[in-house]
Amino acid sequence: MTRIRVVNPNTTASMTALIGASARAVAGPGVVVEAVTSSMGPASIESHYDEALAVPGLLAAIADGERSGADGYVIACFGDPGLDAARELAAGPVVGIAEAAMHAATMVGRAFSVVTSLSRTTGRAHDLARRYTASGACRGVWACDIPVLELDDPAVLPRVAASARTALDHDGSDVIVLGCAGMAGFCASLSVELGVPVIDGVSAATLLVQSLVTLGLRTSRRDEYAPPLAKPYTGTLEIFGSCNPNGVGPVREA
Amino acid sequence: MTRIRVVNPNTTASMTALIGASARAVAGPGVVVEAVTSSMGPASIESHYDEALAVPGLLAAIADGERSGADGYVIACFGDPGLDAARELAAGPVVGIAEAAMHAATMVGRAFSVVTSLSRTTGRAHDLARRYTASGACRGVWACDIPVLELDDPAVLPRVAASARTALDHDGSDVIVLGCAGMAGFCASLSVELGVPVIDGVSAATLLVQSLVTLGLRTSRRDEYAPPLAKPYTGTLEIFGSCNPNGVGPVREA
Amino acid sequence: MTRIRVVNPNTTASMTALIGASARAVAGPGVVVEAVTSSMGPASIESHYDEALAVPGLLAAIADGERSGADGYVIACFGDPGLDAARELAAGPVVGIAEAAMHAATMVGRAFSVVTSLSRTTGRAHDLARRYTASGACRGVWACDIPVLELDDPAVLPRVAASARTALDHDGSDVIVLGCAGMAGFCASLSVELGVPVIDGVSAATLLVQSLVTLGLRTSRRDEYAPPLAKPYTGTLEIFGSCNPNGVGPVREA
Amino acid sequence: MTRIRVVNPNTTASMTALIGASARAVAGPGVVVEAVTSSMGPASIESHYDEALAVPGLLAAIADGERSGADGYVIACFGDPGLDAARELAAGPVVGIAEAAMHAATMVGRAFSVVTSLSRTTGRAHDLARRYTASGACRGVWACDIPVLELDDPAVLPRVAASARTALDHDGSDVIVLGCAGMAGFCASLSVELGVPVIDGVSAATLLVQSLVTLGLRTSRRDEYAPPLAKPYTGTLEIFGSCNPNGVGPVREA
Amino acid sequence: MTRIRVVNPNTTASMTALIGASARAVAGPGVVVEAVTSSMGPASIESHYDEALAVPGLLAAIADGERSGADGYVIACFGDPGLDAARELAAGPVVGIAEAAMHAATMVGRAFSVVTSLSRTTGRAHDLARRYTASGACRGVWACDIPVLELDDPAVLPRVAASARTALDHDGSDVIVLGCAGMAGFCASLSVELGVPVIDGVSAATLLVQSLVTLGLRTSRRDEYAPPLAKPYTGTLEIFGSCNPNGVGPVREA
Amino acid sequence: MTRIRVVNPNTTASMTALIGASARAVAGPGVVVEAVTSSMGPASIESHYDEALAVPGLLAAIADGERSGADGYVIACFGDPGLDAARELAAGPVVGIAEAAMHAATMVGRAFSVVTSLSRTTGRAHDLARRYTASGACRGVWACDIPVLELDDPAVLPRVAASARTALDHDGSDVIVLGCAGMAGFCASLSVELGVPVIDGVSAATLLVQSLVTLGLRTSRRDEYAPPLAKPYTGTLEIFGSCNPNGVGPVREA
């Protein structure tokens, strides 16, 4: 039996349910998907700041998985937060959903476009495309200007579809990558509507992790991704409340 | 039931047997692997010329698979010959073994090195790395100077291991990609010996195709990879014999 | 006397006549241009599949040229099919028309746009630009949506000109590269009409091959482009008919 | 008066003292340098995991600076942890020391090499070079294999110098970038010894922030770096102890 | 006391006055800014030809600065003419204004657009962006089609603002770089009007040179930027008049 | 009749004789090669400073050629000094010898190495490779540490050959590009000795210009390379003497 831990690095449990369903829908026989919600961090990840504060909770969920014997991990947020750190921590493979979706996209078309939530996250998507894919594979990143936590509302599907259509036409791309775990539910209907492959990273990453486990492949321990060195870590972080109007966030010493 | 056709694009049946075993060893329950040998072309693929002459036979095997209802295809030669053409021909996904191995390598380490057969094939490996991966992912391509058809001999394993060790040290890489389908049998022992992930493209590609089929992803039909246009094709090609000393190959009109 | 063999890798003799005329119009005194039609393959090359099936016939034409003492070769299709394999086979230099046109374009302007036949071929043109030129040299590839075999009709010239004008304006480029051998006849009039250099790859490649021969430069035999190794090649390929509606092509064993 | 807050994102106060001294040594008249130690996180940053756990403490120090009216910030760890998030949080400019050092390096030579602490951090340095500089500017990253907290010992200077000399010779570079805030004290003597510019990021970043403040330049609020959106953040993170032998780190819910 | 020589490489003294004012407005206490006008060359630099003819005068101004003990230099033309040669000549650091502006831009936003004078200079700006910044940092270069010597007229500000606004919208950038020293006076008002950082290279370069001097950093003398070798230089160049209608410029032997 | 003006941009007439002989040896019937020595500038070009001071003399030679009806130009120094400015000035095509050699090299092999004179010029060669060729085409630049004006001595051939051999082995390249016009005489014997194509840019550029003229291709006048604008140019430059020991060059106002 293979146990794949799918971590939702935000703290919204309803989104974890959606993510878990996407993962389970494709996991092979004998694969148990554990979808877990991060126990600390932001309700949604829509900025570098959100991402930074989500990572410790994500790593706690990875560490917990290690203690309970998970075979591999999916980081179920399109920014792939904490991916490198998670690889140092986990014995088994760790795959991000942007990583999985972008790799899959290059295998079913010439060039893809990403359709994501808010425009402020497009920079991160560009960074990830540059990290994962060859130059020219990602032709554009488009925001539909819908906050992450509203993406599970079927009513927004037409707006996502409109963004995807614009992307295909403008970029001359032939594949759509969904740029948010919250869009997983739209994958099948969008694909029918647009007539091109539409890729949900949650299901793609689940199968990639399952495949890596089957292949016996684990993150290389040679140098960079070796376990973190033993050393003192100190302090307690309490995060709570919401950003105040002048942009100063809620982090403070507990 | 999912049927994955794994095509060995050279004409050496013993190599097909090895390839088929690698694929079957990882394929999921309910997946049937059909390993087929190309019915025309070179006995091994070690040059651009060999690759060019292998492609029509490969495409015939793809067309044959379409007629018999294959769900997806693996092109089991590290040069990924005919990949784009095969994508136009096949309804289901098509993945090359270099493509699969390189994608997998980026998910289990910082940077990989390729260990391949003859040095004359390293240029092609560099081209594929540039096509599939981001700049910096592939740190080097090393030839162990063993012809493809001698790679199934366990006696050559130490030489492959030596090349891999040199690659890791010189390149500062942390993952090894096996640059020939004929090396598939060495994967597990090499990984133990070297202490880093060693990736065989045949098994990796089999699971990638299986995953794409499960995800319902097929090659985009939008523009570039649409089925070839109807038009007259004429002529008969007979290939036979071996290259003569002055370098002029055996192609001629039948 | 220098003999340059210009190979039309499709099987349409009227196109060979056009190509031969373009080549002869620029070849120097003492240079004999042999324009030959491939004896097998598709009537036109408009897909990866077409290109793959055109290569064996092209290589047969190269091998034939070697037997008869050709000094160099032009591959007269903008996809430059079989270029690497041809370089292994031929003693003298081999140049593709996309290669020649793109190199020439960079010497007479800041950045070029390609105007080609069908949109499904633009991906290949992008790949070639990435292979031959520095990043930024090619600003765009535009299709005028005219099939290759209709491009010799003067009636389509206004549509080609319109695509070129759009390309110059949109891309901010200052040179046009004609993306199909079949457009060779439009070169002079388009240049006058557009007021920028317009480059036909057939004539450019002919002069590049002539120049390389004069310089005594032949493809390096060091490693990658050495003659193909002696080995068994087997099988007969008969290609005929036209694609059937479900996209499965005409390749089959003879 | 300009107040520049220089944040040491690890929890080792002696290193903060060194960093503060480097910053103050170059700050202009009327510039107050506040060197602060992060109140939570690892004692040193030598892995992606360390970096991830250092970021919340760093952000708390930035938020604290915003409340007290800092005009700009230096992130004084060569991995530039949390740079993007800090830019969202701070009204004034934020500069990382790798960023500053690499930019400066390109202005005083053709190409630089980085000399850093442990080899496991070289991947991060490569990533940052790719982010900040043009292709070819960074010719190599070399580890002297000295842990961060031992770098303030003058006894290790010869080993750092030896790494730098190897880098210059092997890479053909003409500038050395010190790859750790802990090396700041070696800058002057190394430069004399090696005969090339040697760049310490702490002092370089301090002057860059001072310059940006003088120029009236603040991080753009257009889209990506706008203040984080108001939303619930929950949870408490307690980090303590040291990594256990099986690589599972100390993060857990408090 | 630090002496920074700011060289206007064109021969228009009124532009030097503007440049000197920009530099002095930001220079620190104890820094003397010497703004000098080149004694030979074109009245403005708007082509490669202008730039080539401006360089000897610029180098004479650098050599003069060396004799009089300047500590560092700013090349105050956005094409950064003669930058490499000046670095060989000067003992202290030399920074170009495009270089300074582009580096600064990357520290206060995700991606910048350049707004420049005439469209014929945009190619040079692209070249410089490729030299100084990572791929993707510069999203576009836009010309407002105003000659350099008319840019000091406040009446053109609305046209510059309009170009900048178009650039931000079209490119999705969040920082504007002013692409001509003559635009320095517009920096503050444009920034207010556009709501994004607007960067003037003259002031940015002045502070970069000041910073490099404070850091004790000088151009590396290792190999490439070592002083020019002793050798005979001969000839006298008289440049005068204006280009004649057929495009042949005024250079001739005196 | 076609007149190609080959400009030696240094002032050493014996080198012009060598260059002229190389050009004439390959020029076609009906092509007149005018080899001219620049009338002002350095005796040899071995630094950015030398190059900058050579350009005005080069441009004077181009302007003179325009007045006398030259059809095209070769810039016969491997740094391709003044290429862009020359293109603005000349009606016919202008090609640099580095440009020509690098383009030719990519057509006769997988990847080339450059062998040049002094190591301080290797940076410029790298810049040009990045400008003219695709990433990966140039694998290395090697200096044989022989000053330009000593390269015509047959006694240095063994040292050039040794550098070339090292380059081929270390870089895994298969073509050698000679990185100085002064090496033109070694081309044939080196090629025989090394067994790979060796490319002299002077002869390659001559044939490229001849080819462009035959093709009727001239530098695009659209925007960037339009003739320089009419404007005042003032001043006289006298260059003489040799560099003094402190690195300040001979430029001064006449």
Q: Can you give a write-up of this model?
A:
Six copies of one chain form a homohexamer. With 254 residues, the first copy, chain A, is of the alpha/beta class. Chain A folds into two domains: 2-97 and 205-253, Rossmann fold (3-Layer(aba) Sandwich), CATH 3.40.50; 98-201, 3-Layer(aba) Sandwich (Rossmann fold). In chain A, 40% of the residues lie in helices and 19% in strands. Chain A contains eight helices and twelve strands. In chain A, strands 2-1-4-5 form a four-stranded parallel beta sheet, sandwiched between helices. In chain A, α1 (13-26) crosses α8 (201-214), α4 packs across α5 and α4 packs across α8 (201-214). Mean pLDDT of chain A is 92; it is low at 241-249. Chains A and B meet through α4, α5 and α8 of A and α4, α5 and α8 of B. β3 of chain A pairs antiparallel with β10 of chain D, so a sheet runs across the interface.
Oligomer: homohexamer
Mind telling me which CATH architecture of the largest domain in chain A this is?
A: 3-Layer(aba) Sandwich
- Counted up, domains of chain A total 2
- Return the string of H and E elements of chain A: EHEEHEHEHEHEHEHEHEEE
**Termini Cα gap of chain A:** 41 Å
Note the beta-strand portion of chain A: 15-25%
Q: Using the alpha-carbon principal axes, give the shape of chain A.
A: globular
Number of helices of chain A: 8
